[in-house]
C-alpha cells in the first residue's frame, strides 16, 4: 500500500464522518427521562474514573516520579 491510498482513504473516512454528523431530518422524541439517564451515565463515568485513579494512585505517582526525576 502506498501513501496516496492511505491519504485518499483518510479523506473519504473524514468526509463520511462529517456527513453522518449532521443529519438532515430527525423525527425523534426525547422524553424527560432521557436527560436524567444521560446525567446518570456521565456521573457514573466520572465516579468510575475517580475510583480508578484512587486505586492506582501509587502507580500513577511512581510513573510521574520516573518521568520527572527530582534534581536536588
Average of pLDDT? 88
Bulk shape = flat
Identify low-pLDDT runs.
Answer: none
Largest sheet: none
Q: DSSP strand (E) fraction?
A: under 5%
Structural class: mainly alpha
What would you report as the Rg, rounded to the nearest angstrom? 22 Å
How many DSSP H or I helices? Answer: 3
Distance between the termini: 51 Å
Elements, N to C (H/E): HHH
Q: Quickly count the domains.
A: 1
Number of E-type strands: 0
Helix proportion range? over 70%
Walk me through this protein's architecture:
It contains three helices and no strands. With 72 residues, the chain is mostly helical.
Give the SSE layout.
Blueprint: H1 3-21, H2 32-55, H3 57-67
Task: Tell me briefly what this model is.
The chain has about 70 residues and is mainly alpha-helical. The protein has one domain.
Notable characteristics:
72 residues; mainly alpha; 3 helices
Amino acid at each position: 500500500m502506498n501513501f496516496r491510498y492511505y491519504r485518499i482513504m483518510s479523506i473519504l473516512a473524514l468526509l463520511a464522518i462529517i456527513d453522518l454528523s449532521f443529519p438532515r431530518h430527525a423525527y425523534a422524541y426525547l422524553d424527560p427521562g432521557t436527560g436524567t439517564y444521560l446525567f446518570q451515565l456521565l456521573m457514573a463515568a466520572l465516579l468510575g474514573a475517580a475510583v480508578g485513579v484512587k486505586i492506582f494512585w501509587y502507580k500513577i505517582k511512581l510513573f510521574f516520579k520516573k518521568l520527572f526525576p527530582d534534581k536536588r
